Every structure is written in C-alpha cells, then in structure tokens.
Amino acid sequence: MTRTTPDTSDDNARPRRSLLLRTTTVVGVVVPLCLAGWLGWQSVGGHDRADGAAPAGAAGTPGGASGSGTAGPDAAGATGTGTAAAPPSSAAASSAAAPAEAVPTTPGASTPAGSPPAGPGTSAPAAPAATGTFSATALAGRTVLLDPGHNPGNFAHTTEINRQVDIGNARKECDTTGTSTNAGYTEADFTLDVVRRARAILTARGATVVLVQDGDRPWGPCIDERARAGNAAHADAAVSVHGDGGPAGGTGFHVIMPAKVVAGKADTSAIVSPSHRLGLLLRDGFRSATGEPYADYTASQGLDTRSDLGGLNLSTVPKVFIECGNMRNSTDAKRMTDPQWRQQAAQGIADALTTFLTTR
C-alpha cells in the first residue's frame, strides 16, 4: 500500500518570505538614519578629538575656562577675554605653567644660574631664574659680606702684601698673590667673577651685599682688614671665596670653618657654632649646584677647621672660606674657567647664604 503526504512546501515558503521582507525593510530604514546621525556628529566637532585629545573648553581644565579672564597673562589657554584658546602642545603647556622669573645679569655672565655647559654645536638650555625658589624680599634687611680672595693687582705690589699683620694668635703676610691655572687664569680673577655673580643673585633677593674689594683697589686689602670689613658692616654672614693651589693630582672643593681661637685680638667663641652651620649649608649647596666632588687631597668630607687664617680669627660675624676647586688640577681648572660653571658656583654660594639667613 502506498502512503501519500500532503504537499506543504508553499505553506513553509510564505512565512519565510514574510520574515525576509520585514528584515529588509528595517535595515533599509535604520542604516540611513545611523549614517545621517554619524555625519552630523562629525560636522559638529567629533573630528576635534580624532587624536584622542580632550576638547578645549571642558570645565575645570586649563585652557577651557570661560570666565572673565582673571588668569594671569602667561596662563596657558587664557586670552583675557573669557574665550578659551586652543589647547597648547605639551611642551608649551609646561613652559606656560611655570613662567621664568627675570634673571639678574652680571658682567661676563654667559648663562643664568644652574645651566649646565652647552655641548658642541648646541645652545645652553633654559635655566631656573637666579632667585631660585626664594622671593625678591627673602633677604630684605639682611647684610652679606662677600670677600673675593686676593687681588689681580697683588703681583705688582709684593712689598705691600708681604708686610706682616697680627691675626690674634700669630703674625702673617698681609696677603698673597694667590694661585692660577697652568694656562694663567688667576685665582684673583676667578674669585672676583664668582663673587660678582653671587652678589647679583643675593641683591635680587633683597640683601645688602658688601664686597671687600670690587676690582677698585690696586692691591689687597690685608687679611686683617678683610675681617674688619665684615665686622664694620655688621654682616649677618660672610663668605670668603678662593681657588686652591693644591697638588696637581688632587681634585675637588672644601669649606673652611673657624676653630675656637681666644688670643690677642682674636676671639671666635661667639661665631664658631653659627659658622659651622653656615659651613655645612655651603658645602651641601655648592656640591648640589656644581656637581664638584669633595676635595680628595685635604679636609674630610669637604669640611676643614682652621685656626691660622686671619680672615676667620678676627671675624666677629659668622664666616667661612670656600676653596671652590683646585686650580692646579686640569679637570678642576677646566670647570673653573667655564663661565657657566662659575655661575653655578655663585648660585650654590648664594643659595647656601639665603638658607642660612632664612632658617634656624
């Protein structure tokens, strides 16, 4: 017996055609609407963020403020009219966020404080302002004595500088010619240059700066007069700047502090402690500013205490000496003849003095 089954092919085809028709209709309507919406978004401003940057004008972000222009003229993105400017590049934003202060200049200064020497074919990078993190009034009412060791004219006045003077516990020569590099750059020229640079920085911070000599004397002064200059000025602190004439194989700097000396005209009892504090600050500040190592041929950890220096023995104000480097060493001599390094040296000295006078 043959079994026959109903033909249902047409019944199955009809619902499938109906579903396909509905799907095609939905796609035909939705896709154009999406495309139109996307094109509209792009035209409004979507392309401004194609590189992933946040849109300018976002509330609470630099460059996007829409207030009355109260931000300073250097503020990134502020135009002073309440209209947000285009966002600056990252480099521009960094410089705008921290505008540089004016840097005091001094004769012969080639770069501001803190600038590393420029390499061949390159220019020196921008440097921090000479006033560093200290305000223009940080040293208001303070007096600083700077003593540039020796004098360029001493070579022509040997009779005068060989005269003996009383330093309290002994008698010593009035002054000496100082040392020099093998190329003939003298200690007296070095010290005067560094001191003038330090004066510019300290003056910018409000200090009254007294120089023992400013290239305005034919020779000297004698070591006892150098001490009296700080005493007469009632200086709050004093630093005598030198370059050492050590062994050619020795390198580095060191700070000399006064020992306790009570003899004759000398009595350092009252200044030993504050001078020691100044010495520590100067050692640390100078090394930080210049990168110069501690002396490896004298002193210990960059510090020495002496009782045979008239400039310290006869001082009644806190005072230290600094030997900024060994001018007889070729490595130190190269640094010390570089004006940029001398600016760094001046920065280290000025910063140490400022810290000494503004902290306890």
TrEMBL record:
TM annotation in the entry: 20-41
Alphabetized SMART domains for the sequence: Ami_3
Residue ranges occupied by any MurNAc-LAA domain in the UniProt entry: 227-354
Enzyme class: hydrolase
Region (Disordered), start-end ranges: 52-129
Alphabetized UniProt keyword annotations: Hydrolase, Membrane, Transmembrane, Transmembrane helix
GO terms for MF: N-acetylmuramoyl-L-alanine amidase activity
Low complexity compositional bias, start-end: 71-113, 120-129
Listed Gly residues bias regions: 60-70
EC number, as in UniProt: 3.5.1.28
Gene3D superfamilies listed in its UniProt record: Zn-dependent exopeptidases (3.40.630.40)
The protein's name: N-acetylmuramoyl-L-alanine amidase
Organism, scientific name: Kitasatospora aburaviensis
